[in-house]
Amino acid sequence: MWDERYGIDEYVYGKLPNDFLREMADRLPQGGRVLCLCEGEGRNAVWLAQQGFRVTGIDASFVGLAKARRLAQEAGVEIETIHLDLAEADLGEALWDGIVSIFCHVPQALRKDVHSRVVRALKPDGVFLLEAYTVRQLEYGTGGPPNAALMMSLVDLKDELAGLSIEYGDETIRDIYEGRFHAGAGAVVQLIARKPAQPN
Ligand SMILES: C[S@@+](CC[C@H](N)C(=O)[O-])C[C@H]1O[C@@H](n2cnc3c(N)ncnc32)[C@H](O)[C@@H]1O
Q: What pLDDT is recorded for position 15?
């Protein structure tokens, strides 16, 4: 489905970064190594690279990642792309200064597993940044999967990310204009969580 959705010239989620990422990127360790999960057409990875981060984007859509590389070339920055399903992705151990997850809606069992891998994959003091739709989004119908089982809540995320300390967590309604598939008021969960620094 994703290759089909991305198979047009238009960037269907836009070329500009996600609003929450732009607002909160200064929480990510400056200049660090950042992994973007479900990166799609590259808008977030490219913007982060423009801010001086070393960025890797992972996604299961070959077509999306080809567009991501094109966007990086247009912007004159380098990003690494990995074409892989999250179900098969080894995210490594203490490897990333930041991990970013924007509208990465996967089935609950996989999401829980990915989030436990995120905790392991962050370096000490590394930061996880997430925005996703909550189940309330089904009332708004302005984007996201029409499937309650794929939505997230702050309570679930806190549980799945045990081991990180939550620096910011909110469920809110905000205006989202991020490409043709995210258009209008939407119900989201937003989270910033940090891995404890290693004791001296
Ligand atoms: C709504 S798009 C968001 C793209 C990007 N994060 C953004 O905000 O522009 C969701 C993305 O998740 C990817 N995706 C869905 N399931 C996946 C999986 N199991 N493994 C890797 N990527 C997946 C899709 O290919 C798609 O690019």
A: 97
Using DSSP, state whether 159 is helix, strand or coil: helix
Q: Which residues of 167-200 are buried (b: 16+ CB within 10 A; e: fewer)?
A: eebebeeeebebbeebeeebbbbbbbbbbeeeee
pTM for the whole structure = 0.97
Q: Indicate if ligand 1 lies below 6 Å from the C-beta of 82.
A: no
pLDDT tens digits, one per residue of 76-92:
999 999 999 999 999 99
- Which is the closest atom of ligand 1 to the Cα of 181? 1
Dihedral sign, Cα of residue 151, residue 156, residue 160, residue 161: positive
Residue whose C-alpha is closest to residue 40's, from 11, 79, 8: 11
pLDDT above 80 (res 19): yes
C-alpha distances (whole Å) from 176 to each of 6, 18, 70, 132, 144 are 20, 9, 24, 12, 11
Ligand 1 within 6 A of 85 CB? yes
Say which residue the tokens 């008021």 belong to: 185
Choose among 159, 157, 161, 164: nearest CA to 125.
164
How far lies 53's CA from each of 78, 145, 178, in Å?
Answer: 10, 30, 22
User: Around 132, how many Cα atoms within 13 Å sit in the side-chain half-sphere?
Assistant: 25
CA of 181 to the centre of ligand 1 (A): 13
